[in-house]
Amino acid sequence: MSGDKTGTRAVVLGGSIAGLFAARVLADAYDDVLIVDRDVLVGVEGPRKHCPQSRHINGLLARGQLAMEEMYPGITEEIFADGVPTGDLAGHVRWYFNGRRLKPAVAGLTCVAASRPMLEKHIRRRTAALPAVSFREQHDILGLVTTPDRGRVTGVRVQSLLGEGGEEVVEADLVVDATGRGSRTPVWLEELGYPRVVEERKKIGLAYVTQHYRLLGDPYDGDLSINPVASPALPRGAIFTKTDGDRVELTTYGLLGDHPPTDQEGLYAWVKSLAVPDIHDALQHAVPLDEPVAFRFPTTLRRRYEDMDRFPLGLLVTGDAVTTFNPVYAQGMTAAALGALTLRDHLHTGAAPIPAQYFRDLATEVIDPPWEMTNAVDLTFPGVQGERTRQVKAAQTFLKLVQTAAVHDGKVTAAYMRGAGLVDKPDAMMRPAFLARVLWNVVRGAITDRLGGGTRGATAHRPEAAASSGRQASPPSRDDELVSTN
Q: PANTHER family per the record (predicted)?
C-alpha cells in the first residue's frame, strides 16, 4: 500500500460500506479525505435511515473478509470480540439445495456473521480513526463542479439538510461516487455533455423479509447458519443465522413475484413452505424481537462505465453505484472491498487515477467473474428474461454436476464454496482431478439413491408445505439443482 502523499483532497460521496472502504485506501494517497452523506454516521450503532438494507442480512463473502482484513489489520478479531459468531462457510453452514444437504467440510473460509449495523460500526470506527478522514454529515449532494471545458471534476456542490446556510462548493482533486444504486452520476454526466452510460438490467422480481429472534433452544447442532436456497421448482429460500447480541437473524426471500408476507402468521406459514423443515421447526421455540420488515429488489443493475469513450478526469464510481448484484448471492460488500483494492492499485503513483484504466480493471478483475456466475444461476429460473447462450448453458450444466456431487463429497463442497466465496477463480474447478472427482460422485450418488440410501431430505421440495402456504408446488424441472450459493 503506497504511502505517497499528493497534498490534495479526495471527496467520497456516500458513507456506507463502499464509501468507507474507498476512504480507507484514499487516506494513503491524499492529505484530506472527506466523506459526505445524508445520514448521521459517527457513533451510530443501529440501522440508518437512508440505508434500508441495514435492517436485513448482509453477507460478507470469504474473499471480502480477507480484503477487509488487508485494509484494516486486526478488524476481524475486533468484530468477533464484540460478540459476533463465526464459522466456516463450507464446514459450519448447513447448505440445502432442493432439500438435499451438501456434505460439510472445513475449507478455511471465515464467516463473519455480523449484522449490517455491527459490521458498518467497526469499519466506520477504523476509518474515522485515520488522521486524513473526516465526515460531512446530514448534507445532500447536489451535483458536480467541473473545469470550464467540463473535462475534469474539481469538486461537488452540497447543502445542509438542517437548513444551515445555502449551497456550498467542496473543492476536490478526486471525487468518488459511492452513493449506491440511486447514484446520480449517469444524469450528471449527461448534463455535462457526456454520453449516458449503458445500463444492463435483469428483472428477477426479488423480495425478502427479515426478522430477529431469541431462541429458546439450539437447532444448529454446532452449525452457524441454516440456508435452504431457492430453485426453479420452488423459488423460495432463506438464511437463518446466528448473529451479534445473542440473536438469530432470518432473511427469507422469493423470486419472480413469489414474495414472503410481513404479517407474523403469514411469515410462519411461508417459512413452513421452504424446502426443508429446519427453520420452521426452530421458530416454534423462538421469541420474535422485532416486526418483520420487507425489502423489494426488482432488477439487478450494471453500469458499463468501462465501455464509455469519454469520461471526466477526477471522478470515479464504486460499489453498488457501478453494479448492484442480486443480493441473494451476498456479493455486494465483497465487490465493494475488492473495488477499493482496485482503486488503491491506481493510486500508487500519487497522481489522480485515470478513469478508463480504473473502470477497465474494476470490470475485468472484480465485477465480471461474479456477474457471469450469478447470471448463469439467475437464468435457470424460467421466468427470468435473458439470453441463454451456449456458454451460459454449459456453465449451468457444470454447476448442476458440482452441486450434485457436493451432496456426497465434502471436498467438492469445499471447492464449490471457495469459488462461491470468490476466494478461488472459476477456472479452479476445471482442473482434471476435480472434474474426475465430480463425475465419480455424480455416478456414485445416482447408484446410492437408486438403492435407497439417498441423503436426508433428498426430495426437491415439500409439496405438502407449499400447499399449506397457499402455493401450488411446481413439478421438478431438469435444472432443479442449479441454484444460488449465497
A: THIAMINE THIAZOLE SYNTHASE
Whether residue 444 lies inside any domain: the answer is no
Q: What are the residues whose beta carbons fall under 8 Å from the beta carbon of 435, sequence distance 6 or more?
A: 429
Tell me which H or E stretch contains 25: helix 17-26
What is d(CA 269, CA 271) in angstroms, rounded to the nearest whole number? 5
DSSP string, 411-430: HHHHHHHHHHTTSS-GGGGG
Burial class (CB within 10 angstroms; exposed 0-12, middle 13-18, buried 19+) of 387: exposed
Residue 359 belongs to what domain range? 9-80+118-200+301-367
Q: What pLDDT digit, counting tens, does each position of 456-486 carry?
A: 444 333 433 343 333 333 333 323 322 333 3
What CATH number has the domain bearing residue 345? 3.50.50.60
Give the three cell numbers for residue 110.
Answer: 471465515
**Total domains present in the chain:** 1
pTM of the predicted structure, to 2 decimals: 0.89
**Are 343 and 360 in contact, with CB atoms under 8 Å apart?**
no
Would residue 235 count as lying in a domain? no
Alpha-carbon distances of 78 from 58, 81, 83, 126, rounded to whole Å = 18, 5, 9, 10
